[in-house]
Amino acid sequence: MKFKTDKENLLSAIQKVQSVITAKAVLPILSNILIETQGNNLRLTATDLDIGISCLIPVNILEQGSITVPAKRFGDIVKELPSDDVMVNIKKNNQVTIDTGSCQFKILGLPAEEFPKLPEFEDKEAIVIAQAELKRMLHLTSFAVSFDETRYILNGILLKIHKNKFSLVATDGKRLAVADGDVSKETEKDVKIIIPIKTIQELNRNLKEEGVVSLVLGSNQVLFDLGGVVIISRLIEGEFPDYTQVVPAASDNKMSVDRERFLLAVRRAALLSTPDYQAVKLEFFKDKLVVSKATPDIGESREELPVQYRGKEMMIGFNPVYLLDVLKNLSGSQAELEVTDSEKPGVVRIAGYTYVVLPMRLS
C-alpha cells in the first residue's frame, strides 16, 4: 500500500477515530488503527469492541492495500511532521514508512487480517435525522446521563422513534431530560434503544450543523453514518425506566427569568458549595427571585434577580450543578422554571423539551 496526502487531512482523520481507543486495550491490535484503501479514498478505523468508528478521506492512492498501525505513535508522528505533503508506504514485512522528503519515520504495524471486523448492516432500512437537530437534542440531554455503573441501564440515552417523531431521554435518578424532534421520513416500526454514553460522546464530537445522519439498527447494535464518518456501537440491553411517571403536571407557579443572569447568579452562589452543603436556595417572590447560599464555617451570599412571577411565595433548594447544566445548554434568552413546593421537583419546560430536577434539603 502506498498513498500521498497532506498532513492536516491525515491528522484530522486519525484524531477522529483514535478517541475510541482505550489506554488499556485488552488486545494489542485494539491499540492500532486499521488503514485501508477504498478506490481513491483511504479509510481509517478504530474500535474497542463496544464501539467502532471509521473515517473516509480522499487521498492520492499510488498502490492499494491495508495495514494497522499503533494509533498514538502514528498520530504523534504525523502531528509533528514538518511538511504538508506526506507519503506513506507499507512494505511486505509490515514496515510503515512515513516520508515528507526532509523527514522520514519507520514504524512497525500489524497485519490488517488481525483487526476485528466491524458488523455489517447491509439491506437495513435507514432512519434519517438532521445532524443539527440531533446535535441540539444531545446537548440538552447527555449531561443527565448516570455514570453509576451499578445502574448500568442509565449509563446511556434512550432513543425512541414513533412514525416521524423521535425522543431522547436521559436520567441519573435525580434529574431527567427529555428532548423531542422529527425524523425526515415516517418509520414503519417503533424504535426503542439505549445508546451508551461513550457513543453519545463520539456523536457530540462529530456531528455538524449541516447535513444528515443515517441511523441503521442491527440486532443489538446501531450504526450512525454522518457522511465520511461512521460510528457503530453496541446497545445497552434492558428496560429503561418509565420516565413519564415522574414528569409533573404543569404548575401555575412559573417563573420567567433572563437565562444568562440566572446562570451567573447560580454559578456565583455555587462558589460556597461544599460536598456536605451543596444546595443553593431559591426564594420566589412577586417579580423577584433571591438566589442565596450559606455554608457553615465558609460564608454566605445573596443576590436578587428581577423575574416574571405571579405564583405563591416559596423557598426551595437545588443542586447548583443540575441548574447550571440545563441553563448553559438552553438557547433562548429567557429561562422558565416551574415549582410546586419545597419538596416537589422543579421543571424547565419549553416546546420540545422537558427537564425535571429533584429538590435538595437546605441544611
SSE diagram, text form:
Layout lengths: L1 E5 H12 L13 E7 L2 E7 L3 E8 L1 E4 L2 E5 H10 L4 E6 L4 E5 L4 E5 L17 E5 H11 L14 E7 L2 E7 L3 E8 L8 E6 H10 L5 E6 L3 E5 L3 E6 L19 E5 H12 L9 E6 L2 E8 L3 E8 L7 E5 L1 H8 L6 E5 L7 E5 L2 E5 L6
What are the main properties of this structure?
41% strand, alpha+beta, elongated, 8-stranded antiparallel beta sheet, single chain, 25 strands, 363 residues
Summarize the structure.
This protein is α+β, with helices and mostly antiparallel strands and 363 residues long. It has helices at 7-18, 71-80, 131-141, 197-206, 259-270, 320-327, and strands at residues 2-6, 32-38, 41-47, 51-58, 60-63, 66-70, 85-90, 95-99, 104-108, 126-130, 156-162, 165-171, 175-182, 191-196, 212-217, 221-225, 229-234, 254-258, 280-285, 288-295, 299-306, 314-318, 334-338, 346-350, 353-357.
Characterization of the model:
With 363 residues, this protein is α+β, with helices and mostly antiparallel strands. It contains six helices and 25 strands. It has helices at 7-18, 71-80, 131-141, 197-206, 259-270, 320-327; strands at residues 2-6, 32-38, 41-47, 51-58, 60-63, 66-70, 85-90, 95-99, 104-108, 126-130, 156-162, 165-171, 175-182, 191-196, 212-217, 221-225, 229-234, 254-258, 280-285, 288-295, 299-306, 314-318, 334-338, 346-350, 353-357. Strands 6-2-3-4-17-16-15-10 form an eight-stranded antiparallel beta sheet. Strand 7 and strand 8 (95-99) form a beta hairpin.
Return residue spans where pLDDT drops below 50 for at least 5 consecutive residues: none
The portion of residues forming beta strands comes to 35-45%
CA distance, first residue to last residue: 67 Å
Overall body shape: elongated
How much is the average pLDDT?
93
